[in-house]
Specification:
Distance between the termini: 17 Å
Largest sheet: 4 strands, antiparallel
Radius of gyration: 17 Å
Number of helices: 2
Shape: elongated
Order of helices and strands: EHEEHEEE
Structural class: alpha+beta
């Protein structure tokens, strides 16, 4: 058994959860924020059997997309500064061994 922890941008989470559920995976979502832009993220926790791990990871990969965004470049003198293009979105995924998975 494996535990997937997937940190997904708020813009992508609805599609990821929809397709995981459609494929028979249950998940729990935790609202979070962080990263460079302090944008909203959702951490999805999903318990999967080892034989379905790659299927779940493929769905997360397919429905979470990275994109670029322009953000102001910090300036030490307080004057207007040019914008910098940064990549946001996508998913950061951790796969952990899970000794036991219970549902009450």
């Amino acid at each position: 058994m494996k535990l997937i922890l997937a940190i997904i941008n708020l813009d992508d989470v609805a599609g990821v959860i929809k397709h995981l559920t459609k494929s028979g995976f249950s998940s729990t979502k935790l609202t979070s924020s962080g990263g460079l832009l302090k944008e909203g993220n959702v951490t999805i926790m999903t318990g999967v059997s080892e034989d379905r791990l790659e299927e779940a990871l493929a769905l997360i990969n397919k429905y979470s997309h990275s994109r670029t965004r322009l953000v102001p470049t910090p300036s030490l003198d307080g004057l207007d500064s040019p914008e910098t293009e940064v990549t946001v979105g996508g998913a950061t995924v951790f796969v952990l061994d899970c000794e036991q998975f219970l549902r009450f």
